Amino acid sequence: MKLKFSTLIKILIILAIIAYGFYVYWINTDHSTKSADSNATEQTAINQNTTNQVAVDDTKNNKIINTLALDSKPVDDTNSSSADYIMEKLNLHAKAALLMDASNYRVLYEKNGYSEMPMASTTKIMTLIVTLENASLDDVVTVSKYAAGMPDVQLGIKAGEQYKLGDLVYSLMLESHNDVAVAIAEHVGGSVEAFAKMMNTKAKELGCNHTNFVTPNGLDAENHFTTAEDLAKIGSYAIKNDEFLRITNASSHTFKELSKGRTYTVNNKDRFLQLMDGAIGIKTGFTGKAGFCFVGALERDGKKFVSVVLACGWPPNKSYKWHDTKLLMKYGLDYYSLKNITGDTKAISSIPVTDGQDASVNVSYKLSEIKLLLNDKETSRIEYDIPNSLEAPIKKDAVVGHITYYVNEQPYKKIPVYATDSVKKINFIYCLNKVLSSWFFQ
């Protein structure tokens, strides 16, 4: 009896091993079939649910690529690029110029936009940003001898005088007073040097990697520079702050010195606010080294632009900066329109799994609606970088792929694709249970 029982156990073990081998073969064969079916189903769903969409099965790269073509107007047959063609039409005076979509920092036009250059009093945009984010406008500022000794343009503050910080910021931005800029910097940072470090820290935070601040007023100084792109980023960030805009858009401001009661009235010198409908700022600048500079901002018809012109002429050509700024803004308004880039959120619901205790894993992702300012020559598409199959084990919430928005063949936004469940790898116990279940529960 003992011999028969042990023999039976051995036979069962041998059968289980054979069953495991057959089961693994069957699972893999079944998966390959399901993989083909799943891909066919996916392609059918994509073709049915997505309008103007071309699906390509790129087996070499083991990914599915979807290209969404935006509705666009006919493109002319000029041999020159859009940038070259428009550059000729703009005929800018500035040595460096740039137009940016303020909502996402995308560069729409640039001329030497990445060259490091001095920026004069447009520096004060960052001075105000750092001040608003690190001090209370109710603070009382005591003027130092050093601040009072700054060269023109001056408010004429004197050492020992006291002012409310909320008044000085108008003097800083509306009439660009250099003595006030230093008084503010010393109050907020403790010293000009410490305040400059705060400015540079904020610049790096905004992705301005080719900017270095030495002074809070923008007077010519060694190693004080930026680029048109970096300055546009700073301007785009600044106009998101309602307090910043309230100050820079004021037509005038009257205030008093707190100890002796001297009264001042400062008036806004930004002519651009009256030059174009929708103009919202921002800041002028001039030094002998930097030339005339201007950072402009305009919001109209759902579009928000920030423009920068640097080294835009020297005296007597003070009006060049307004000419160039208007051309840049008009270019943005005329050549760019808001277009939606959308994707089908139900195109892919699962991915086949090899060597897994489940045949597939469900996936989730969120394709948000994206509105971009695009001109008629620009292209966009969505690429689904999702494998045709995955190998177990797979953890829940693991990133199993990506969906990338491209504009002009450059990545614009990447969205992760997550596994919504866990899938365990096939093992001996799992196969044995499967075999025994098929024997005893048929």
How is this structure best described in words?
- There is one protein chain.
- With 442 residues, the chain is α+β, with helices and mostly antiparallel strands.
- It has 2 domains: 2-71 and 342-426, Sandwich (Peptidoglycan synthesis regulatory factor (PBP3), Domain 2); 82-335, 3-Layer(aba) Sandwich (Beta-lactamase).
- It is built from 12 helices and 19 strands.
- Helix 3 runs parallel beside helix 6 (178-189) and helix 5 (165-174) crosses helix 6.
- It is an enzyme of class 3 (hydrolase).
- Pathway: Cell wall biogenesis; peptidoglycan biosynthesis.
- The chain crosses the membrane at residues 7-26.
- The active site is at 121 (acyl-ester intermediate), 124 (proton acceptor), 176.
What summary fits the major beta sheet?
A: 6 strands, mixed
How large is the radius of gyration? 32 Å
Helix share of residues? 25-40%
The tally of helices reads 12
CATH class of the largest domain: Alpha Beta
Mean pLDDT: 84
Beta content: 25-35%
Q: Which structural category do the helix and sheet elements fall into? A: alpha+beta
CATH topology assignment of the largest domain: Beta-lactamase
Question: What is the CATH architecture descriptor of the largest domain?
Answer: 3-Layer(aba) Sandwich
CATH superfamily of the largest domain: DD-peptidase/beta-lactamase superfamily
Number of domains: 2
Strand order of the largest sheet: 16-18-19-14-13-17
* Poorly predicted sequence stretches spanning 5 or more consecutive residues: 30-85
The total strand number stands at 19
Distance between the termini: 29 Å
Shape: elongated
